[in-house]
Each structure stands twice: as C-alpha cells, then as structure tokens.
C-alpha cells in the first residue's frame, strides 16, 4: 500500500478555496441546525427533564451536540462531496494526472473533512460559551478533539464512498449508521438510561468517546478514565485512514 505525501495539502487547499467561494450558502446551514437543536432540546425538552447527572439538561446536551454535528460535517463532506467530485465532476481524474497520487487525493479529502468538523465544533462551542454553558478553559481542547474525530469520521465516510455503486447508497449510510450513532452515543441521554445491551453497543459507537471527552472538557472534570476514549478515537482514525487509502486506489484505477 502506497502512502500519501505532503502534496495532499494541495487537495485540501482546492477544497478550501471552493468553500470560501461558497461560504455564504455553507455557513448558515452549518451553524443554524445545531443551534436550533441545542436550544430546542436544551431549553424546550430541558424544562421537562430537569437535572441530569448534576447538570441542567442544556449543559448536559451541549457537549454532545458539538460532537454530533462535528460528525455530521465530516460525514456529509466526505460522502456526498467526495462522491460527486469522484464520479460526477471527475475532479480526481484531473488531479491524479499531476504529480499528486491517489493517496494524496484521499488524504486531502480526509483532512478537509476534519477541517469542516473543526469549523463546526468551533462555532457551536462559541455559541455554548455565549449561553454560559462552558465552565472550564479546558473546553478549548474540544477543537483538537473535533479535528481528530473529524479525521475518524471522514476516513469512515471516504471508505464507504469508495465502495458504493451509486449516490443513493448514502441513504443507508446515514439512516443505518450515522443516525443511530447520533442518538445512542450519550448525546441526549446518559448511557445508563438505556437497556444493558444498548449500553454495550453504545460504547462501541465511534461517537461515544468523543461525547465523553467533550463533556469532561467543558465541565473541567478530567480523569485518567478519558485515556481509553482518546486511544479508541486514535485507533479508529488510523485504521480507517489506512483502509480508505487502499479502497480509494482500487476504486480510482478500475
């Protein structure tokens, strides 16, 4: 398996330039939905839920919303965005006739997806701070956590994009993977509230450790128990990154 080179940054720059051209249509959608979810769930449902784990419900939900929408940003960018550039616009075919190879293209896509996660996480964290939901300066570490989680979810999305025959197959990805992960990773409810079998499955979900880290960073309650969560994210990111390099090469040379 070939590795990628520093030239992957050119793919990242290409996607960045497109984003800056379209930012007026990108930013409102990227920011509005998570803010609406945060306010609707935190202030609306929160009036009925009350206190959760010693916190108001909106304080409990905020770290999970940051993690969840960082996941959505990376996933949408590296599913629909990647597939359109690969199959419809034929952008990758044009790029790989330059000194860049397929692995550079794949890495550039993944790191751009991670950048989208970072941007989304930054916006929602700023909103949470404005609502006085951030209680520790450790919350700034949510930004690198969002980037790392973005690498993980972007790699998973690129891997799936490299295997499917049609853009319509993303319906399965979001309905059967992303949505269940979003609702069963402790974003809106403590994992202890689920049946035991669901709890066990929830700890396997890649979003769960991200939510766990974000919640600890916002509250400032850092313990060594967070190290396995961080290691799990790193492990999944590296594993899916490596596999996606291989599957994208197979897809693009056929």
Keywords:
single chain, 254 residues, mainly alpha, two-stranded antiparallel ribbon, 75% helix
Class based on secondary structure composition and strand pairing = mainly alpha
| DSSP, total strands | 2
Euclidean distance between termini CA atoms:
16 Å
Query: Which segments are poorly predicted (pLDDT under 50) over 5 or more consecutive residues?
Result: none
Secondary structure topology:
Layout: H1 8-21, H2 23-49, E1 51-52, E2 55-56, H3 57-88, H4 91-95, H5 102-130, H6 142-161, H7 170-183, H8 196-204, H9 207-219, H10 226-253
Antiparallel strand pairs: 1-2
Explain briefly what this protein structure is.
The chain is mainly alpha-helical and about 250 residues long. The protein has helices at about 10-20, 25-50, 55-90, 90-95, 100-130, 140-160, 170-185, 195-205, 205-220, 225-254, and strands at about 50, 55.
Report on this model:
The chain has a two-stranded antiparallel sheet. The mean pLDDT is 91. Strand 1 and strand 2 form a beta hairpin. With 254 residues, the protein is an all-alpha fold.
């Amino acid at each position: 398996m070939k590795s990628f080179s520093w030239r992957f940054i050119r793919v990242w720059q290409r996607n960045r330039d497109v984003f800056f051209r379209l930012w007026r249509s990108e930013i409102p959608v990227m920011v509005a939905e998570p803010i609406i979810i945060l306010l609707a769930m935190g202030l609306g449902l929160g009036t009925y839920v009350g206190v959760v784990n010693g916190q108001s419900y909106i304080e409990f939900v905020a770290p999970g919303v940051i993690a969840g929408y960082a996941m959505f940003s990376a996933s949408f960018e590296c599913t629909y965005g990647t597939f359109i550039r690969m199959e419809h616009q034929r952008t990758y075919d044009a790029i790989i006739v330059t000194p860049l190879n397929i692995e550079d293209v794949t890495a550039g896509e993944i790191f751009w997806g991670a950048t989208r996660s970072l941007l989304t996480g930054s916006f929602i964290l700023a909103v949470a701070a404005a609502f006085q939901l951030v209680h520790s300066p450790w919350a700034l570490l949510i930004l690198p956590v969002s980037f790392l989680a973005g690498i993980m979810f972007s790699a998973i999305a690129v891997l799936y994009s490299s295997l499917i025959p049609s853009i319509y197959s993303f319906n399965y990805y979001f309905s059967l993977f992303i949505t269940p992960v979003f609702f069963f990773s402790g974003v809106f409810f403590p994992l202890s509230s689920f049946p035991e079998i669901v709890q066990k499955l929830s700890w396997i979900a890649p979003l769960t450790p991200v939510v766990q880290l974000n919640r600890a960073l916002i509250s400032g309650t850092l313990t060594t128990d967070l190290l396995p969560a961080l290691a799990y994210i790193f492990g999944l990111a590296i594993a899916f990154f490596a596999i996606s390099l291989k599957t994208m090469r197979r897809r693009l040379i056929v």
